[in-house]
Amino acid sequence: MSDRTPPDGEADGDADAGTVRTHCPYCALQCGTLLSRTDPAGGAEVRPDPEFPVNGGGLCQKGWTAPTLLTTPDRIRTPMVRDPGGTLRPTDWDTALDTVAAALTRIRTEHGPDAVGVFGGGGLTNEKAYLLGKFARLALGTSQIDYNGRFCMSSAAAAGNAAFGLDRGLPFPVTDLAAADTILLAGANPAETMPPLMRHLTAARLIVIDPRRTPTAARAALHLQPRPGTDLALALGLMHILVVDGHTDRAYVGRRTTGFEAAWKRAASWWPERVEKVTGVPVSDQREAVRMLAAADRAYVLTGRGAEQHSKGTDTVAAFINIALALGLPGREGGGYGCLTGQGNGQGGREHGQKADQLPGYRMITDPAARAHVAEVWGVDPGTLPGPGRSAYELLSALGTDTGPRALLVFGANPVVSAPRADRVAERLASLDLLVVADFVPSETARMADVVLPVTQWAEEEGTLTNLEGRVLRRRRLLDPPPGARSDLAVLRALATRLGDLPERYPAEPRAVFEELGRASRGGPADYSGIDYERLDAGEALHWPCPRTADGEAAHPGTPRLFLDRFAHPDGRARFAEVEHRPPAEEAHAEHPLYATTGRVLAQYQSGAQTRRVPQLTAAAPEVHVEVHPDTAARAGLTEGGHARVSSARGTTLARVRLDPTLRADTVFLPFHFPGAGRANLLTNDALDPRSRMPEFKVCAVRIEPADLEFPETDAERGFEEDGFEDDGDGTVLATATATATATAPGHGPARLQDARP
Fold first, then answer.
1. Where are the alpha helices (DSSP H) in 245-383?
2. Staple 603 to which of 253, 343, 582, 621, CB 3.0 to 4.6 Å?
3. H helices within 462-565, ranges in order?
């Protein structure tokens, strides 16, 4: 079978242009950039776009070095299929796609459509996320689709939907923060995770809640340092003081909210002294935080992953939203609640159908009206659409089991490093009948794959993304991709056609996909129907919802500030949440007496699959480290720069010791960007929030001890050839069966592909 789609699958963009206006490929700020070609071989240089207000002419070191990844030596340039000896060998596209389609057809025939799973990513463009969800539900007929954004924003999304009837990271422009008097940051460290945001926070007095004295906390007027897993108790305590000391905006609460009395009954028992006992935060600091918020004319409450990545993350975020509502902040200019979204398209990625329970436009898949609308756009019977599937970790944990998927397609994710209880995830991936990974570098997950499909990078493709303030942005192409790489859209079209679906259902041109996305989202909470490429290319700043207006009317201007007149619930009121503190799923105990928490460092991003390939970033943060209080280190026999073994009930991580006298003595910190024995997620707990299904990344019980062994080299130090990858002489990267310890584990290997190949 031949794929008739052009290799790059895209008709938009000018690959001959000298400079294009586009956006950074990393975090949800989506900083505006000017990207320029420097040589015919694919080199480029980047400058900040001075006209884009979010970054205002600034970039972090990741943004400045982003073009380096475009010419990384280990770029995957040809499809690969694992041979009978366990080695990934280069092949042509037809063979690779035919192999995948034949295996999927066999598995679906023998075990049903839910025997195939799809795992997406929060960095995919809106067009890719939309078509991936459509492909899963139509071409595969599976309910088993979710994405790594479940690990990022799901708790804040669940809490925001419950409180406001709508989930948008920031329901106001980022630039509004520059005029704030006081900002509470709960579990957020933007000085490292999104440095250009800090220029909007310089005028405000910052209250930072974090177990660590992060670079953001170091700039704060007040740093509250709770024991890991106790943020909810602290939020209840702040609410208690706020009400008792008379700072509640009673007129706002009565006019614009419901549920205050029930929420207050929960907070009433969290008097300051009790909160101090549970959290370790002094009463005086609790009271000062409330005074600072109450005295401000313009105040904001913002949450990040530190508050959200818990088995009670939804309730924790809800408790902080309660504080904002009690102060009368949401839905007015100069104040509000917001969540600092993490991944580049973390907002748009969850709006258009790659989440297990959602259809495009942020519609729920269980809603008959939503199903009918989307089915009409797709030209199918609503009854043929599957129902909700497993959430991200539940999907990964079920792989290869009697009731779980036997095949998985991965687009834009690296769960071998990023998922909790990472050893179990690797074991589950190894047990599959078929693992297909679409990527442009040999990530740790790609190294385990049976089929690897090389896809385009950010500077080689057109599309849109939605940043943390709900602003829809244009990604523009500067460079042609390598001859062997194709866009994800072209890959999905080719696979759908091979699986017997209609090719016209899967356009490979981003503009055509976005036009269909607009129709599918029309009337939904995240309505993009009034947005098109022409308006974006003309420079309009369009925040969703931006509905299509009736014929003859002026185009809708978009909605930069939500909730000014009413909230999105039918009665127009916001809801207080009745929440109660509970301990983390795992408390410290005699065998594991310390708490471990994880997070990001300035020079790395997510699983590190991209940033660990940039020499400047690797030099700044070359390996995993563990931050330990000097007293804790002394008791454990650890020294600065030495090696430590950090162990939990689930696994062991090896890390370099860094002493930090500002850290809590009962807490250690590890960044989660590193592979192999340095994976912080070998330790983390897979306990899930009952509503958001968010894993408890931010707290687990560990012990720490010296490690008498040589510290493992990084990828950059040893080269991929020594880790199972070979160069065939023309830049093509191959992977052998030694690429990971699990690649040749029982049940994982090439034999299962033999019957599937044409």
1. 250-256, 260-268, 272-279, 283-295, 305-308, 313-326, 346-349, 368-378
2. 621
3. 488-498, 510-521, 533-537
Residue 658: alpha-carbon gap to chain centroid? 27
DSSP state of 195: G
Total length of the chain: 758
Bridge pairing between strands 594-599 and 667-671: parallel
Q: What are φ and ψ of residue 292, in 5° steps?
A: -65, -45
CB-neighbour burial class of residue 247 (10 A; exposed 0-12, middle 13-18, buried 19+):
middle
Separation between Cα atoms, residue 52 and residue 47, nearest integer Å: 12
Task: Supply the DSSP string of 111-129, one letter for each residue.
Answer: H-GGGEEEEE-TTS-HHHH
The answer for residues whose C-beta is within 8 angstroms of residue 82's C-beta and 6 or more apart is: 88, 89, 449, 450, 451, 737, 749, 750, 753
What's the CA gap between 327 and 4, in Å, rounded? 59
DSSP state at residue 591: S
- 273 exposure class (CB count in 10 Å sphere: 0-12, 13-18, 19+): exposed
Q: Under a CB-based contact definition with an 8 Å cutoff, are residues 15 and 478 in contact?
A: yes
- Under 8 Å between Cβ of 471 and 561: no
Which of 591, 650, 602, 593 shows the shortest CA–CA distance to 625? 602
**Measured distance CA(485)–CA(228) in Å, rounded:** 44
Q: Are strands 32-37 and 19-23 parallel, antiparallel or unpaired?
A: antiparallel
pTM value is 0.92
